[in-house]
Structure formats: C-alpha cells, structure tokens
Design goal:
Elements (H helix, E strand, L loop, with lengths): L1 H15 L2 H31 L5 H35 L1 H9 L2 H18 L3 H24 L5 H22 L9 H35 L2 H16 L2 H16 L4 H38 L7 H17 L2 H7 L3 H23 L3 H28 L3 H31 L4 H23 L1 H22 L13
Length: 482
C-alpha cells in the first residue's frame, strides 16, 4: 500500500512538474542519498547484525548516528553545496540540495530506533510507519506543486516531509535512547559499522553517479527522461525488493548454519524474480502506450529508456540481497572492494556513453547491469559465501524463461494492436492480459515446482495480510533483547 501511494503520487507530480526539474532534483537527492547511507548502514546495520547487543551498544550507536546527522547537515549547507555542487552542476542543484539538508539530521535520529524495530522483526509496525510517511510526503509535494506552483522545491520538501513523519512515528513506537559515548562499545559498533558505511556510500554512489555524470554532460531534460526510465525500469521494482531487503539481514544473521542461509537465499531469489520479471517484461511490451498515457505526452521521450532499463531492472532484481548475505557472514570488506571496482567501471561506462546520446547511455547501463549481476554471483555469493553458481542461476531460470515467452507473445501483439488504430487503453489491457496469462501458463507447465512454491507464498502472504487487517498482534516470540 505504501509503495502504491508513492507510485500513484509520481504520476500526479509528473503532470505538474516539467522533466528538467526532475533532472535537477535527481542530482540533488542523489548527493543526499549518498550521505544518508553513512548514518543508517554505519550505525543501524551493526545493531541488526550482531548476535547480541547491550544497552551500551544502543546508547553509543545513538550518539554516533545523531552526531553524524548533525555533521552531515553542516557539511552539506556550508561546504558540499556551495563549494562542490554549485561550480559543477549550477546554483539550482545546489539550492535544492541545501533545501534537502534536514533529512540528514532526521536520518541520524531515526537510525537506531528503526534498527531496533528491525532487530525485533517488527515489520508490521515498520510497514505502518512507511504507509503514514509515504502518504504525508507525496501529499505535501503535490500540494506545493499544484497550489503554490513550485517545481523542484515541491519534490524536495516532499522527501523531507516523508523523513520527518517517518522519524516522528518511529520514535513513538521505539523511543530514542539517551546518546552516550562509550569507548568499548563504540569500538564494537564502529568496527563493523565503519566498513558497512563505506559499502553503503559506495553502493549508493553507484546508484546515483549516473545522474551526476549526465547532469554535467547533457541537458536537464535528458537527465529527467533518463531518471523517469530508470525509475520505471529499475527503481520501482525495488519497492517490492525493499520488503525482501528488510527481511534479509535480520533473517540471514539468525540462520542456524550456512546450509540454512543458502536455502533461504535460493528461495528469496526464486520468489523475487518470479514476482518481478513478468512486471518488467510487460512494461517493455506496453511502454510505448503506457508512459505517455500515464505521465503525459511530455514524457514520450522516456519510452525507449524505460524499455531498455527494464532489462537492467531484471538484472538488479536477481542480485538484490547479496550484500546483506555477505554482511551476515561477517565479510563487509569483500563487498566494499567489489563495489569499488564496480563503481569505477560504471563511472567510466556512463562517462563514455554520455558523449553519444541518451540511447547509447541506457543501452550501456543495461549491459553493465547484466555483467554486474554475473560478477556478483561469482565473486560474492560463490567465492565469499560458498553458494555454487548453478544454484543461483537455477533460481533465476524459471522466471527468466517464462517472462521471455511472455514478452515474445505480448510485444508483437501490442504492436499489431497499435497499427490497427486501437486506443492506448485497449492495447495496454489486451496485451497486458496476454503477457500475464502466457507467463502464468509457462511457469505452471515448465516449472510446476516453482508454480506451487509461488502459490504457497501467495497464500501465506494473503493470510498474514488478513491477520494484520484484523488487528491481531504481531508475533513477539522472535523478539530479542533490547
């Protein structure tokens, strides 16, 4: 529900704010995202990953996260925005980054209480907080855009409002501990958290460096079209991936042994790709009609980026959770080195491609993402955790084959309907139904065991949803100390 609100609001905002403003905002919030990873992963992840924690660990993590939030706010306002961002990306991006600066402090305050909720596996409460915050933030942005006529400012203030509501709601259910400096506990938290924070900064830089490179080399409109394509093809599927990511580290960290961890990883990859792949292949087939219809004709140039980057989204979906897996076995350094190599290569690829137009950029990004996931399976899952490559690939095959057959049927059908002058809505409905029907049929016939596994997962998910809506208390048996 929370993610449906976010996606729905993006449609409204796309019709109120021009593409160029989305390009400016993507760069500004990209810098913000890089900095935010320091507080959350550096001081929240250790509290989730450690087998046991004491009150002293919580207090020192609170001290470090709040202090980091304050320091980042000051750094962005007085150093990063005026001295680094403005000379390269212009005053508009620097101004939007300054406007976003409160989220650093809010993140510092929210980090430890949120980590404790995850450690206690209180995902129902976390979901309730997300629904509340993701309703408040987009509503604020829409109101500012529609009533006050703001553009990028509306987008940024909406993000700040989301962070504010999330922080306040989290503190209501998980109060902030008294921040205290304790040298011994700081060593425990920072020993793991320091490397984890570097991994987070590297990974988040990888996710946002393309916006920065493109902003320096192409027009803001093209950055906006790329951003829209990346959101649809890659980022929106992470709305579902985020559910798995929240579960991954706590569950991996508490697995009984490596074999149990491997079984959990295989099941997560199978279920995740079976859910995500038909959505992305259907998007590829329907993007020529769906993107202009939903977002407006002003966004028609985002169709090709959306189709190509959906391939990158499929690759990213298969690799989701690998870093959490390696964190759980206590090897953050391996993830850091791997991400540094990938970041360097990605920067080179995007820089080269940006000189040859937007189409070349999205093709290069999609190819790089496919290469990335293959390398990730080998260097992280196989070499660091000991999961054989054949296990990982076999987990992806059912969704990959079934979605390929679905695309082969739906894409030509959509183009045929398009040439017959059928309306966009009819093309989307008919080709969409065909795509999903072929996918379900292929999965059931070719991979019956995976079909049954998916049905069991769906029944379990629906059953838990009914319990939640009936107001039953969450299971507290898994709660740990603190």
């Amino acid at each position: 529900m929370a993610e449906a609100l976010a996606v729905g609001s993006s449609v409204v905002l796309a019709r109120l704010i021009p593409p160029a403003e989305f390009g400016h905002t993507a760069v500004a919030l990209g810098f913000a995202a890089i900095a935010l990873g320091i507080a959350w992963v550096g001081f929240g992840t250790p509290l989730i990953q450690m087998q046991s924690i004491e009150q002293g660990d919580v207090e020192v993590a609170t001290f470090l996260s709040v202090a980091t939030g304050i320091a980042l706010t000051v750094l962005v306002l007085f150093v990063l925005a005026p001295l680094a961002v403005e000379p390269v990306f212009g005053g508009r991006v620097a101004y939007l980054l300054k406007l976003a600066s409160p989220i650093f402090l809010l993140s510092g305050v929210n980090t430890v209480p949120n980590a404790l909720l995850q450690r206690r596996l209180e995902f129902r409460r976390i979901s309730q907080i997300e629904i509340l915050s993701l309703a408040a933030g987009p509503a604020t942005a829409i109101a500012l855009a529609a009533v006050a006529g703001l553009d990028g400012e509306a987008l940024v203030v909406g993000v700040v409002a989301t962070a504010l509501v999330a922080t306040v709601a989290t503190l209501v259910v998980s109060p902030l501990s008294v921040p205290r400096w304790r040298r011994l506990e700081a060593g425990r938290v920072a020993g793991f958290g320091g490397l984890a924070a570097l991994v987070a900064v590297t990974g988040t830089t990888f996710s946002n460096i393309d916006y920065g490179i493109l902003a320096a080399r192409v027009s803001p409109r093209d950055v906006g079209f790329y951003w829209r394509g990346y959101q649809l093809g890659v980022e929106y599927q992470t709305k579902i991936s985020g559910i798995m990511l929240r579960l991954a580290l706590p569950l991996y960290s508490r697995a009984g042994d490596l074999d149990e961890m491997r079984r959990m990883r295989g099941k997560m990859v199978r279920i995740h790709t079976i859910i995500i792949y038909p959505v992305l292949t259907t998007l590829i087939a329907l993007a020529p009609e769906a993107v202009p219809l939903i977002y407006g004709n002003e966004w028609k140039a985002a169709v090709f980026p959306t189709q190509v980057l959906a391939v990158a989204g499929m690759a990213a979906a298969a690799a989701v959770g690998t870093a959490s897996l390696v964190f759980a076995v206590g090897k953050p350094r391996a993830v850091l080195y791997f991400f540094l190599v990938l970041l360097t290569g990605y920067a080179i690829v995007v820089t080269w491609a940006s000189g040859h137009g937007l189409r070349t950029v999205v093709i290069a990004v999609a190819i790089y993402q496919v290469v990335l996931v293959a390398a990730q399976f080998y260097f992280l899952e196989s070499r660091q955790v000991g999961i054989p490559l054949r296990e990982t690939w076999s987990a992806v095959v059912p969704a990959l084959v079934s979605s390929g057959l679905s695309l082969a049927a739906a894409y030509p059908a959509a183009r045929l309907l398009e040439t017959s002058s059928a309306g966009d809505a009819l093309v989307i409905f008919a080709a969409g139904v065909l795509a999903l029907a072929v996918y379900a049929l292929a999965l059931r016939i070719l991979f019956p065991a995976n079909w049954r596994e998916m049905l069991r997962f769906a029944r379990t998910f629906i059953g838990r949803t009914k319990l939640a809506t009936a107001g039953e208390a969450p299971d507290e048996t898994a709660a740990t100390e603190v």
